[in-house]
Amino acid sequence: MTEQRQHKTVLLDEAVDALLAGAETAPQGTWIDATFGRGGHSRHILLRLGPQGRLLAFDKDPEAIAEAARIQDARFSIRHEGFRHLADLAPASAAGVLMDLGVSSPQIDSPERGFSFRFDGPLDMRMDTTRGESVAQWLAYAEVGQIAEVIREYGEERFAGPIAKAIVARRQERGPLATTAELAELVAGTVKTREAGQNPATRTFQAFRIFINAELQELQQALEASLSVLQPGGRLVVISFHSLEDRIVKQFIAEHSKEVYDRRAPFAPPKAMRLTALARIKPSAAEVTGNPRSRSAVMRVAERTQVPA
Ligand SMILES: C[S@@+](CC[C@H](N)C(=O)[O-])C[C@H]1O[C@@H](n2cnc3c(N)ncnc32)[C@H](O)[C@@H]1O
Asked: pTM of this prediction?
């Protein structure tokens, strides 16, 4: 059963320490876990919050929402929404925002979710199975140019063109791809060079997952929203699992960690910096040994600066 599959939370203590650092003991404010997953970080945050503290979580996945229902704590609530909806919260209403990006182990290990080439299942890959289009539905009509662009941009795959052509040729000859095994087999037959220790379909699967869930667009929107939602002194903690995500987080923090001069008004005072970059943290060797999935994690921490008077 899917519910019994476990997720080992990555950087558990490090993330919660970074989020709550600077807050008083038993903090009172409202904290955000933007990616509830199986609630590893959320449960840890709740242990540290005071009686008046609040934790608001988000997740797109109905299975995560079902898991959250098991938390019997009046201080906790969850929204079944993408975390871009952080933008709906009142300005300066959050004491801290945590994002632990990507997919959970139960998602990737469930054949019926279609995230992995390791198991055969429907070619779905939606985090939110209650809405939107699956990868199979999209591939049934997408044009070769768009498929190639997605594989190139989000998978950084050298063979994007040949893979896209093979997908469309197969659709014309035998009907659209329906399963993960069909996609994995087609990519393996098209990609001519093998990266050591990596399945040839790794990059294509990553690309389709990022595309179908609009992951990078939603990350950018949520980061922008966090600037308005965070109180001065509030922490933004983001754990990424691949370089495309981490680049966005790194650039976002860098962009807002400096004063910005308006080139069209060179004598006007600069726009104040809105974040202070605090840390970049990787899992310890011990954590990577105990949880190999943590090896690619990078956590970045920034603090919302005081709003100038
Ligand atoms: C790595 S897991 C989080 C694990 C969690 N920190 C824990 O310890 O159990 C990522 C979760 O974020 C969710 N997710 C990913 N992108 C999302 C988005 N844009 N909006 C809301 N939830 C998202 C996924 O459905 C998944 O459940």
From this structure: 0.94
